[in-house]
Structure formats: structure tokens, C-alpha cells
Amino acid sequence: MRVFSLRIICLLLVAAGSSLVSAGQKPNILFIAIDDLNDWVGCLGGHPQAKTPNIDALAARGVNFTNAHCQAPICNCSRVSMLLGKLPSTTGMYFLAPDFRKADRTKDEETVFQFFRRHGYYASTRGKVFHGQDPASFDHIEPVSGWRQDKTRLAKKWRKANALWDWGQVNIPDEEQVDYKTAQWAADKLPTLASQEKPFFLAVGFSLPHVPIYASKKWCDLHPLDGIQLPATLATDRDDLSEYSRQLTINPTAPRQEWMVENDEWKPAVQAYLASSSFVDSLIGTMLDSLHKSGAADRTIVVLWSDHGFHLGEKLRWAKRSLWEESTRVPLIFAGPGIPGGTCSRAVGLIDVFPTLAEHCGLPDKSDLEGRSLSPLLKDPTQRWERPALTTFGPNNHAVRTDHWRYIRYSDGSEELYDHRTDPDEWNNVASDPQHVALIASLKAWLPTTNVPPLPGSRGADSPLYSDSRQGREK
Ligand SMILES: [Ca+2]
Ligand SMILES: [Ca+2]
């Protein structure tokens, strides 16, 4: 009986949402970006000890995309691809730099925020949404303040390349940390935005669990070190990769897996990641509470996403910068009016968010977008979906993800194929199995035909294959 009543309420809310959009009143958008959060959230099941009750509650009232992927496994190019609605292979934005406003090919592109402003929205932001900030995108940019890191290094044994690579418990009160202040600002702002005449597009970006991966005692205590479960690995996992694949996925600034094991830092780093993710989850709860109290929740679309995933030992490596599941899979949740809710296992991309929001809010088509509106899946998450998700890491290296398969093709022609029905850890590369010839041909058909060279000023690939670009000498 209770389930039946809930269904009726949901249907009424959906009906209310549809009529709201059709009546010309545009829904607001609360856009929540998380930095480097992989599938270690409760509603994605990527780690059995993830504690993210607020994200899970949002997923339960919206559509939880369980097979969503970034278009590029690095912060800057992932965000640019999503916020411009263009593939990396079209823009040439493959790496950590340049700023898209400084490259001729992308400097005049219209972002999702500009598009919504052109159609009557007020856009405001705080925190990491773009990799840098883009003044042209917003009516208001709130400067970021608060603690993120100081000179004290906790995991002192890792001294190699990058001071960001640190993790552990810190004695900084939550209230002084940058992400807390960002959430508090948004929570304070929401009632005002909700009372304005214009619909709002509020973009809020959190910087954890990106390195340095810090959390206060409260969040570390939620994930006691002794009981931490480590991700599964296979010692021979990299034996079936091409030399190109091995080289591409070496990240010289991140610790090596062998180093983490030898120095007993694997568990502490996993603990810090789980703890800081729980902290960010609590901040999302703060904002969503404020949204509900403002009375605007029933006319506000909430979109929650992360720019890419993160390896914590899976496939014997750390960080992003790979075309494997742990780098590409991201949380993606839509909730609000016109969205009845459910779980969607279709392969989708962050690039689809721009056209989805445009269609769902009743804005005109933007014909040059390369993503596809997920509106049909928001209405019926089980609907057939032919198109796979595409991820690109460096020029002409691509992964195609369908419901069951991951196919990778590198620029040297080497390939990988993983069957997620039997091999969720992507341990067994079956690309050379003759029985998959036709399948590979069909997956290959989804690869982009345009592969423009990297933009001038490209750098930050951090792979030995791109040593020129690391020096800022991209040709
Ligand atoms: Ca990131
Ligand atoms: Ca393997």
C-alpha cells in the first residue's frame, strides 16, 4: 500500500514537472561537480565500504546512471568536453592545458551556462566547475576561500614529483575547509536564488576527493583503517597489454602501486579517499536540505556528476589517465521535476548532459552539440539505447563502452576488449580472440572519424608518450 502511494506521489510530481515545463516556466538547475570521484559511492557499488547517504538519497529520487563515463580522463579536457558539448577529438583539448578560451579553435565556443543565460537564466558559481574560471559563463562568480593544503606533508615517504600527492587525516576543522565553505555559500544562497524572478543555474564544484586526499577525524573514524578493504588486483594484469598501453598509462607524478604496497600506504590512501568522499557527501546533503527548505525543490533539476574516475590500485596503478573503467566511470544523477526516477544501466556520457538539460528545460536545440539528449532515458530508464559512451585519452586513443563491453583502440593500432558480464575488473583482454572479430568491427564503427591534433599549448598528459607536451613543447 505504501509503495502504491509513493508511486502515485511520484506520478503526480512528474505530471507537475511536465506541466511546469510546458507552461513555459523554466525549472532551475542545481549543478554539482565533484573532482575525481570514481564509482566508490553507495548507489554505484564500486566499493563495499563507501558511505554516501546523501548522494544515494538523490539517486533514489532521480535517475541514477550506473554506466556513465567521462569523455576524457583528465580534469580540464573532461570539463571542457562536457561544458561545451564537444568531443576532445573535435576540439583538440586532450590534456590539462591550455585554457579553452586561449585556443583559437575553442575560444569563441558557447558553454552550457552561456546557452542557458541566453535563454533567460541567471548563472552563478563557486568552486571547481571549469578547470580554471570562465567569467563569460556566469552572471556571478563567488571567489573561493578556505583551507585546502599547507606545507605539512602527511604521507612523507612519497617525495617524487608532485606535492599534491598526499593523503590522510588532518586536524583542520571541517568548517575551515574550502569545500565546506563552498557548500555553505550555496546553501545560504539558494533561498535568495529561489525567490528571484529568473530561473537560476547554480554550479557548485567540490575539490575533494582529488589529491591531496584529506579528511578530518570524524570522517576517518567513519572508515577505520583496520577494516579497510582493498580493491582486487591481479599480479599478471598488465601482461596482456600492448607496450603502447603500458607506456600511456604510466603516470610519473603518481605513486607506483609497488611503492604503495611496500610502504604500507595503500590502506591509508583508500581510507582517505573513502573518508573525504563521505565528507563531500555530507556537504551535498547540506545544499540539498537548503534547496528543500527554500521551497524550490519541486521546480529545480539537480544534476550531480564527477569529471572522471580514479584508480586506487586497480589494474596495478593510481590516479586517472587511462581508458579503463576505473578512470572513465563516473556518478551521474538527474533528479527533479519531470524525472520519475529509476536506475539506468545504458552507457551514456557526460557530453550528453548539455543537450539533456536543454531539452528537459524546454530550450531550443543547439545543433552543434555532439552529445545526445538523455531525455528519453529520464522518462524511461530501461529504454533501448544504441549509442555507446566514448572516452578519449590523447590523440586517437579511444575507448568505446556499451552495456556489456569495453573496446579500446590506441593510436598505434593495438587493442583491448573486456567483457563486463564476466570480467568487471577488466583483467582479461580478449581482443585477440577470433570469435570477437565481428564484435570488434561493430564497436570500431563508433570511433570518431575526426581526430584533430592537440591544441597549441597542450600539456599535462603526464605520460612518457607525451614527454614533449609535458614540457609545453607540443608540436
Ligand atoms: Ca578531476
Ligand atoms: Ca590483464
Task: Report the CATH superfamily.
Answer: Alkaline Phosphatase, subunit A
| Large-scale geometry | globular
Count of domain modules: 1
Fraction of residues in helices?
A: 25-40%
CATH fold field value: Alkaline Phosphatase, subunit A
- What's the CATH class label? Alpha Beta
At CATH level 2, the architecture is: 3-Layer(aba) Sandwich
Describe the structure.
By secondary structure, this protein is α/β, with parallel strands linked by helices. The protein has one domain (2-396): Alkaline Phosphatase, subunit A (3-Layer(aba) Sandwich). It is built from 15 helices and 17 strands. It has helices spanning 2-22, 53-61, 75-84, 88-91, 112-118, 178-195, 217-221, 243-248, 257-262, 266-293, 325-328, 353-360, 375-379, 437-444, 467-470, and strands at 28-35, 63-69, 122-127, 140-142, 167-169, 200-209, 213-215, 300-306, 311-312, 318-319, 329-335, 342-344, 348-349, 389-392, 398-401, 405-409, 415-419. Strands 1, 2, 3, 4, 6, 8, 11, 12 and 13 form a 9-stranded mixed β-sheet that branches. The chain has a 4-stranded antiparallel β-sheet with strand order 14-15-16-17, with helices on one face. The longest helix has 28 residues, at 266-293. It is globular and about 60 Å long. Residues 1-22 and 469-475 have low confidence and may be disordered. One calcium ion binds at residues 237, 240, 427-429. Residues 237, 240, 427-429 line the site of one calcium ion (CA).
